Amino acid sequence: GYNLSVVNAPALYIKAFYNQTWMERYNEPIRAETVTLLWSITVSIFAIGGLFGALVVSWPIKILGRKGTLLLNNIFAVIAALLLTFGEKARSFEMLIIGRFIVGVDSGIALSVLPMYLGEISPRYIRGSIGQFNSILICFGVFIGQVLGLPELLGQESRWNYLFSFLALPAVLQLCVLPFLPESPRYLLIERRDEAAAERAFQRFLGKKDVSLEMEEVHAEARAQETLHTVSMVQLLKSRSVRWQLITVVVTMASYQLCGLNAIWYYTNGILQEAGFAQNIIPYITLSTGGIETFSAIISGLVIERIGRKPLLIFGFSAMAVFFSLLTVFLNFQDSVSWMPYLSYVCILAVIASFCSGPGGIPFILTGELFEQSYRPAAFMIAGIVNWLSNFAVGLLFPFIQEALETFAFLVFVGFCVVAAIYLFIILPETKKKTFMDISQSFAKINKVPVSSTSHEMKLVLCTGQDQNEKVQNGFKMESSF
């Protein structure tokens, strides 16, 4: 999240640095098209790094596990922070570009492994809320990038390089804390066959001695996949039994990027200038967009287990389509009505809030929920590839779309939002409070595969523990009321 917004504030200073470095090297000013190309590469290579991270993530996951991969990944963040911070002092714009690529790799790996880890360690009745922390903290990262980029803080010509040193802080924090947390118990039991370690992990995560119900749930899933090993991406693409789960993940992850929110983040300043706002107040207006994004993500995390994934996704995409349409209308009339730019600004806030109500975090949760253990790493790899390719496409093509269509550019995103909402309404089953086995079996009919007998076994396991879970949850409620 921080990497999406941190380049906005120092954009002019970075371009000036490119020009100055070019002059020192070649004794001539840099051409306008060259500095534009270098700046475009600096912005968009983050997505290329993310794509590379998503492509290579399956190997460390298999060897090191979820926790080990996250720990190793912090090395990329620290290296990137050093390159980006000291690139200006070394008079090397190549260090900035390479640093953006490396931090993209870090983000690509993190966005594949972290939702998987959170989904596997969470009890199913709060799995959605825990999964939304990923989205909340991405939004918080965007907001922090905007705050630190203010002129009063680090958004100055003499300080802009220190904006990038902040990248090392969460990496160092995770290196200090994560070693003391357990590995995913599902990974330990199903893939490592280490029952004792899985039981200890469940006990630590859930804070109770008796984890027999949770262990039996994972055992049932393991028995259903006892003839399967962790599948490759190619095997997943060929598998008919998970075809519609895969299509659903591709549609939701592509829509996550193609719905148009990144066009607002990458080009917020330009959009607000065209809406008629003065240059000196734009950084503070942008700050409010980050605040509304974080607030909306928190609200979504609080209600996701009551409302469900499917209604929040459909509402989010539908509301975005409505507000993008209104934004188009208001932008077309902003020159004729003095107060119209303020309505454009309200629409921008509404688009951001709509995105964070569902589309901003649930696609990552769904990727973990729609697949059983053996398919999950490959599914996250494919989801990551779609995510970063779509991200790159929006960053690369939106300026040309904006130039060609002008104020009608956002209607392109309306189309993507409407298609996504219709698809999810027709195809996606609700997944809240269901086991991974139940969710997988809900696709059996549309995939035209027989329902596994293990699913009936799983239902018996869950029925046995349902009263126990209700008692635990009711106990929590009574305790909190006292």
From TrEMBL:
<keyword id="KW-1133">Transmembrane helix</keyword>
<feature type="transmembrane region" description="Helical">
    <location>
        <begin position="407"/>
        <end position="428"/>
    </location>
</feature>
<dbReference type="GO" id="GO:0046323">
    <property type="term" value="P:D-glucose import"/>
</dbReference>
<dbReference type="InterPro" id="IPR005829">
    <property type="entry name" value="Sugar_transporter_CS"/>
</dbReference>
<comment type="similarity">
    <text>Belongs to the major facilitator superfamily. Sugar transporter (TC 2.A.1.1) family.</text>
</comment>
<keyword id="KW-0472">Membrane</keyword>
<feature type="transmembrane region" description="Helical">
    <location>
        <begin position="342"/>
        <end position="366"/>
    </location>
</feature>
<keyword id="KW-0813">Transport</keyword>
<dbReference type="GO" id="GO:0070837">
    <property type="term" value="P:dehydroascorbic acid transport"/>
</dbReference>
<dbReference type="InterPro" id="IPR005828">
    <property type="entry name" value="MFS_sugar_transport-like"/>
</dbReference>
<feature type="transmembrane region" description="Helical">
    <location>
        <begin position="130"/>
        <end position="150"/>
    </location>
</feature>
<feature type="transmembrane region" description="Helical">
    <location>
        <begin position="162"/>
        <end position="181"/>
    </location>
</feature>
<dbReference type="InterPro" id="IPR020846">
    <property type="entry name" value="MFS_dom"/>
</dbReference>
<dbReference type="GO" id="GO:0005886">
    <property type="term" value="C:plasma membrane"/>
</dbReference>
<protein>
    <submittedName>
        <fullName>Solute carrier family 2 member 9</fullName>
    </submittedName>
</protein>
<dbReference type="InterPro" id="IPR003663">
    <property type="entry name" value="Sugar/inositol_transpt"/>
</dbReference>
<dbReference type="InterPro" id="IPR045263">
    <property type="entry name" value="GLUT"/>
</dbReference>
<feature type="transmembrane region" description="Helical">
    <location>
        <begin position="311"/>
        <end position="330"/>
    </location>
</feature>
<keyword id="KW-0812">Transmembrane</keyword>
<feature type="transmembrane region" description="Helical">
    <location>
        <begin position="378"/>
        <end position="401"/>
    </location>
</feature>
<feature type="transmembrane region" description="Helical">
    <location>
        <begin position="69"/>
        <end position="86"/>
    </location>
</feature>
<feature type="transmembrane region" description="Helical">
    <location>
        <begin position="281"/>
        <end position="304"/>
    </location>
</feature>
<dbReference type="InterPro" id="IPR036259">
    <property type="entry name" value="MFS_trans_sf"/>
</dbReference>
<feature type="transmembrane region" description="Helical">
    <location>
        <begin position="98"/>
        <end position="118"/>
    </location>
</feature>
<dbReference type="GO" id="GO:0055056">
    <property type="term" value="F:D-glucose transmembrane transporter activity"/>
</dbReference>
<dbReference type="Pfam" id="PF00083">
    <property type="entry name" value="Sugar_tr"/>
</dbReference>
<feature type="transmembrane region" description="Helical">
    <location>
        <begin position="37"/>
        <end position="57"/>
    </location>
</feature>
<feature type="domain" description="Major facilitator superfamily (MFS) profile">
    <location>
        <begin position="1"/>
        <end position="432"/>
    </location>
</feature>
<feature type="transmembrane region" description="Helical">
    <location>
        <begin position="246"/>
        <end position="266"/>
    </location>
</feature>
